[in-house]
Design brief:
The structure is a single chain. This protein is of the alpha+beta class. It folds into two domains: 1-68 and 167-189, 2-Layer Sandwich (Alpha-Beta Plaits); 71-164, 2-Layer Sandwich (Alpha-Beta Plaits), CATH 3.30.70.1560. It is built from three helices and eleven strands. The chain has helices spanning 57-64, 84-92, 144-151; strands spanning 4-9, 38-39, 48-54, 72-79, 95-96, 99-100, 105-109, 130-137, 156-164, 167-168, 177-179. The strands form two sheets. Strands 1, 2, 3, 4, 7, 8, 9, 10 and 11 form a nine-stranded mixed β-sheet that branches.
Length: 189
């Protein structure tokens, strides 16, 4: 039987099960007690939110491969008051050093009501406002969201992934996980 988990990865946690640094940094092994599961895709140490883990290599590849274009939804706090022009640029595709991104869904949102405190908190500067964007991507380049928002003039301060394909955080608090047995992910596009 296949094991697939959804984890709300806290800020500062590595998306791997060990760390060779001394002293070791927080990693998935500090949160997931189930042996044999591996992350399907990545989420940077300074990003938070949904991470899927599985013991099925084919499913892991299917989730993380850009070929399958699984939708990933992010809530992003950016520096400054985001403009309509910047949102439109995100929707059309942004030119990065490794090419133009695929079109994305981008909309300004209010600060999420169910947002947890981050440790350490996001830097606060009274003279510089921030705003929130919800961004939906169908590709997964290295640090893509951060590079996209910076390219349109609004650097990312906080990045939270809230959904991958049909799986959402659904109330998981940072560090909490649940087994996904309610829906066979294998058969999804």
């Amino acid at each position: 039987m296949m094991t697939t988990l959804a984890l709300n990865k806290p800020y500062g946690v590595l998306t791997q099960f060990t760390d060779r640094e001394e002293p070791p940094r927080l990693h998935l092994g500090d949160y997931i007690p189930i042996p044999g599961v591996y992350a399907a895709g990545r989420l940077d140490r300074d990003s938070e939110g949904l991470l899927l883990l599985t013991d099925n290599g084919a499913l892991q590849s299917r989730i993380s491969s850009p070929r399958h274009k699984w939708r990933k939804i992010y809530q992003v706090q950016v520096e400054g008051e985001v403009t309509t022009a910047a949102l439109e640029q995100l929707r059309l595709g942004v030119k990065l050093k490794d090419g133009v991104t695929l079109p994305a869904t981008a909309e300004q949102i209010t600060e999420p009501a169910d947002l947890w405190l981050r440790r350490p908190p996001v830097r606060y500067r009274a003279a510089i406002p921030t705003s929130w964007i919800q961004l939906t991507l169908h590709e997964g380049r290295n640090r893509q969201v951060r590079r996209m928002t910076a390219a349109v003039g609004f650097p990312t301060l906080r990045l939270i992934r809230i959904a991958i394909g049909p799986v959402a955080l659904d109330g998981l608090k940072p560090g909490q996980w649940r087994e996904l047995n309610e829906r066979p992910l294998w058969y999804l596009p």
